[in-house]
Amino acid sequence: MSVDIKAISETIAEKSRFVERLFNEVEKVIVGQRAMIEGMLTAILCGGHILIEGVPGLAKTLSIQTLAHAVQLGFKRIQFTPDLMPADLTGAEVYNAKEAVFSTRKGPLFSNIILADEINRAPAKAQSALLEAMQERQVTIGSETFRLPDPFIVLATQNPIEQEGTYPLPEAQVDRFMLKLIVTYPTPEEEMSIVKRNSSGVSQTVDPVVTPQEIMEAKGAMDLIYIDDKIIQYIINIVGATRRPSDFGLNLDRLVQYGASPRASIYLTKLAKANAFLKHRGYVLPDDVKKAGHDVLRHRVIPTYEADAENVTPDDIISKIFDTVEVP
Predict the structure, then answer these.
(1) N or C: fewer beta carbons within 10 Å in the chain?
(2) Rounded to an integer, what distance in angstroms lies between the CA atom of residue 104 and that of residue 107?
């Protein structure tokens, strides 16, 4: 089957014109954090969820709010607490005594972008309600099931330094996050700009610059992006190396307890296409895979106790895999 790369590239160039416009608008408010904003945009385009880890004060919530406003999508923030109940997320059936009937009151999950703040503070029952929404794109209230809007993504934050009163997320739930982003401190230059902006007394706001229709058309156009079988095989080899490192000439067996699931291969393929889309390209390059690699794999590669004792992180393991597996 012949593929018209030129025609695909022209379509992608047209459908991706909003990308720079969006980034320029968001950067009126957010200094730095380009990787996080790109990650959020690719998740919206791919219909995936993100786990965000970073210490307080790094503009995680502000970035999410700003992006949601710029793309004109619904946004809800939910603060996860130990007493959070499933109905606090999904809504509930409410009895109307005057009319003697039950009516459904929908909860905050019925929006496009959900910020689950400090997700690991809520117990298992609340997590199970969120898991249904993440996986099935639906919510069950009483005996009724309701579809969630499209697009629908969950952006969950975790505080890596405060562990008291938290619940470890089940691996099955962690695996459903397309990406895990690590938000780091700003550079000295970025921090200078942040301090100046926030001490000037002038607050910056963003205007809606992208329509939901443009987002939906972009999602459809991404399916057209060409990815060669050799690059798909490269993705499968990368993921396979997390499970059977010795098969790929890597001496990592003692450091890896569990490797990534096939969901990682699917997400790497989707994210590689999204990275090509951001570059206005109609085809995928190996660099598009490499760019997505750490974010897709770091929460799926489970190190052994020996790796922990030697301070070898999942990111270290992933870097060795990308350095070793042959690039097509």
Answers:
(1) N
(2) 9
Residue 2 lies in a domain: no
pLDDT, position 2: 61
Comparing CA positions, the residue from 305, 325, 303 lying closest to residue 316 is 303
CA distances from 247 to 123, 166, 244, 296 (A): 40, 38, 6, 21
| pLDDT value of position 161 | 59
> Taking Cα atoms as reference points, which of 247, 219, 213, 230 lies closest to residue 71?
213
Alpha-carbon gap, residue 10 to 277, rounded angstroms: 11
pTM above 0.70, yes or no: yes
Helix axes 286-297, 314-324, angle to 10 degrees: 160
- Quote the domain boundaries for residue 299: 225-324
pLDDT, residue 126, reads 82
- What's the domain count of the chain? 2
Q: Which two tokens stand for residue 99?
A: 């009319």
25 and 135 in a single domain? The answer is: yes
Q: What is the H or E stretch that residue 11 is in?
A: helix 5-15
Instruction: Categorize the per-residue pLDDT at 163 as very low, low, confident or very high, splitting at 50, 70 and 90.
Output: low
Percent helix, strand and coil across the chain, each to the nearest 5: 45, 15, 35
The CA-CA-CA angle for residues 181, 325, 240, to 5°, reads: 70
Q: Identify the domain boundary among 152, 180, 214.
A: 214
- The answer on 70 and 184 residing in a single domain is yes
Chain segment 5-46, per-residue pLDDT in tens: 888 888 888 888 888 888 888 888 777 778 888 888 898 888
Over residues 303-323, mean pLDDT: 90
In this prediction, residue 271 carries a pLDDT of 94
